[in-house]
Prior knowledge:
By secondary structure, the protein is of the alpha/beta class. The chain is about 25% helix and about 30% strand.
Amino acid sequence: MKLVFAGTPEFAAVALAHLHAAGHDIVLVLSQPDRPAGRGMKLHPSPVKQFARAHGMAVAQPRSLRLDGKYPADAEAAWAALEAAQADAMVVAAYGLILPQWVLDLPRLGCFNIHASLLPRWRGAAPIHRAIEAGDAVTGITIMQMDAGLDTGDMLLSRSLPILSSDTTGSLHDRLAELGGQLMVQTLGQAELGQLQPVPQPLEGITYASKIDKAEAGIDWSQTAQIISQRVRAFNPFPGASTQWAGETLKIWAVAVGHALARPPQIPGQIVALTPSGMVVAARDATLVITELQRPGGKRLSSAEFLRGCSVQAGQVLG
């Protein structure tokens, strides 16, 4: 097929690589404008742009696709490029810009979206984070025919994936990215043969995965140990769950649920023991063993490494 691809982060770059390997003719790639990153805050291209450039694909980076928006010249240039592409379909994965109706209408077969959840659960910006945070046992990929709504289009194909108790957003992201690329290749194969059977999304079970805010990262030790554990996994690698200790903000990268408490702790967040396994902290209903953490400006350390270099004492309170 002759395709336009729209995406920005690594999740999308994996899908682009699958489409390229499958032999599709990717005539145009849309990606977000280069962003400053690193200590020098130099402009860096997105993973999608890097892959596209490395494989000789044309790239456009409009700041907007709305003709009546803040950057109409960008949108008009994108319109011209998309019209010239004469694409059979447009594949979208974590692009980051809303597609107006004129974009949805241009490709012969419309626009197909790779969404990292089993719709209608977790529509929106952060489905992987929110699934882990909520304690879901399963997630997956849905290939959706895009419409003007927020992840409301008809479902074309879907495949489930279990969420492991060890999964972080980082590890689950990588597994879902591979699955998304594979499923999109399958979707396009069925589209070429006219075998797709769109299914409207159910009206029951709709949830929204709001964008992750750094302000959410602080651990509330008065929550249950299981909820805190899920949030630590959900916020790994971004933004990283955090807590305060001795005037410092510690990033907490890994915890394990310990033993149940006979009664609620008088001081949630109190360090109740220091063991070879890690720092044992009281939550609402059980202890949590912190097994990996990081000081400001430092590197990630096991709890044992951290304790060797810091004067942590039982009875101190994290908060």
